[in-house]
Amino acid sequence: MVERYAREEMTQHWTQHARYAAWLEVEKAAVKAWNKLGLIPDDDCKKIVKNATFSVERIEEIEAVTKHDLIAFNTSVSESLGKESRWFHYGMTSSDAVDTGVALQMRDSLDIIIKDVKMLMKSIKKRAKEHKMTLMVGRSHGIHGEPITFGLTLAVWYDEMARHLKNLKQTREVIAVGQISGAMGNFAHAPLELEEYAMKELGLKPEPCSNQVVHRDRYARLASALALMASSVEKFAVQIRHLQRTEVYEAEEYFAKGQKGSSAMPHKRNPILTENITGLARTIRAYAVPAMENVALWHERDISHSSNERFWLPDAFITTDFMLHRMNNVIANLTVMPENMMKNLNLTGGLVFSQRVLLELPLKGVSREDAYKIVQRNAMKVWEEIQQGKSTTNKKGESLYLLHLLADKELRESLSEEQIRECFNFDYYTKNVDSIFKRVFGKK
Q1: Cβ of 154: how many Cβ atoms within 10 Å?
Q2: CATH number of 351-423
Q3: Is 76 a catalytic residue?
Q4: Tens digits of per-residue pLDDT, 324-349?
Q5: Domain limits, the chain
Q6: What is the pTM for the complete model shown?
Q7: How do strand 251-252 and strand 135-140 relate by DSSP bridges?
Q8: Does the domain formed by 2-340 have CATH 1.20.200.10?
Q9: Which is catalytic among the residues 141, 263, 299, 435?
C-alpha cells in the first residue's frame, strides 16, 4: 500500500494534465509580470489569472490538426477567455512555457525524492543502532576477512545515502531554473525584468544566459544524480541478496504469512524485492545516457531532446520513487540472524584473526616477512583441513587455527600462550565502533 501511494504521489506530477497545468502556471506568471511592467491592464490580468483554463481533450483535438502541442494548448486556453486572451503568451516562445513548466515538475518531483531519501536514511539509522555490536564476518572478494559488525555495514549505507542527499539538494538548485527570454533567447520582445518577476513568482531562478531552451546539462545533472543514487541502492540490495543465500543466511527479506516463493518448490523464500531493486537501478542508470546526449543540441536549439524527455523524465522520477520506498520496506522489515552471523564468523576455524597475530610479531622484534610466513603456514593447514571436511574446532570448542598456532615452536619463541589466545578476542575488533558511529550519525 505504501509503495502504491508513493507511485500515485509522484505520478500526479507527470500526467498530461499536470504538464499543461505547469505551462499554465508559467503563462500566468508571465501575465502578472507584464502587468507589473505596465503592459497588461489590471482588469485583463485579473481575468486571465482567474479564468484561464484548458481541456486536455480539446488540446489533443487541436493538436491533431496543428501538429504543435504548445499552439494547441494556447488555443484551448484562449477559448476560456475573452478579448484579454491577446495577452496570453505575449512575447514568449514555446520553450519559455515548456522548459519552465518542466522545471516546476522536476523541482516538485525532486522534493519527493529528497523526502524518500530521508525516509530511507531514518530506517537505516534505526537498524544500524539496533545492530551496532552484532558481530559478523567482513568479506573481500566474497572470502572471509576479519570481524566487523552488521551495524557498521548499515553505517556505510547511511553515510553513502547522506552524500546522495547532499547531491540531490544541490541538483535541485541546478534544475529549478526557468526562462522567459523569447525566440533565440535574445530578450528582443520582452525585457529581462519580465523574466525576473515571473521566475520569482514561480519560485525559480532565471537561466542567466539562455538561447531558446534551458540548457540540458542541468537535466543531465539530474539524471546523473538519480543514476548514482540508484547504483548505491542496488549495492545495498545486492549485499542483502548475498546475505540471504542459503549457504550464508545471515539476513532475509521479511517473508509474510501466506507468501509463496515458487510455483514448483514450496520451500523457497526468495529475495524478490532486492532482485527487483537491482533491475530498477539498471533502468534508472540507463536514462543518464539520453540526458547527456541531449546536451548537444544544434545551435540555439532543436527538438531532438524533446521526444526522449517525454518519457525518461517521468519514468526516472516514478521509478526512483518506487525503488526508494521498496528499499525502505526491505530495510525496515529485514530479518537479521545474529546467531548465523556468529556461526559463519567461526566457519573458518579462527582464520579471521590472522592479521592480529601477524601484527603482534613485529612488536616482539620479528621481521614482517618472517611473521607473515609463520602466520600463513598455520593458516594453510586450516584450509587443508577444511577442504577435507574436518571440524574447525576441537571438543572444547577451540578453533583449529588457535591450536596450530599454539603448537608452532617458532611462534612460541615470541608469543606466550596467553598472548596468542588474546589475539582471538572479538572485543579488539569492536573497540572503535562507537567512535565510527559518532562520525556517521553524530553524538546523538
Answers
A1: 26
A2: 1.10.40.30
A3: no
A4: 999 999 999 999 999 999 999 999 99
A5: 2-340, 351-423
A6: 0.93
A7: unpaired
A8: yes
A9: 141
